[in-house]
Specification:
about 90 residues, mainly alpha, elongated
């Protein structure tokens, strides 16, 4: 992920860096520390609502980055497919 981050070309490097750092921090909180949150017992409706809000806030932040990564992946797949078809047609001749 660091290599990908380093290769992203943007005019808003500071904003990109801050967003990326926050996404990683939130991911680590969810993956490694969710069970230690005060609401993690999900014993009451209030705890469930608090947990849902916690996860929703992190999702809202991560969604634009996910969409960008999906677009990059799709573009990469198109390039690979076009190179593969060029390679295949060169072998036929």
């Amino acid at each position: 992920m660091q290599r990908l981050k380093d290769r992203i070309n943007t005019a808003h490097r500071d904003l990109f860096e801050a967003t990326w750092t926050q996404i990683v921090m939130h991911r680590n909180e969810v993956v490694h520390h969710f069970a230690s949150q005060p609401f993690a017992g999900l014993a009451t409706e209030a705890e469930l609502q608090e947990a849902m809000e916690y996860l929703h806030k992190r999702r809202v932040l991560a969604t634009p980055m996910l969409e960008m990564l999906q677009q990059l992946s799709q573009a990469f797949a198109v390039v690979l497919k076009s190179e593969e078809s060029l390679h295949d047609s060169a072998q036929l001749h």
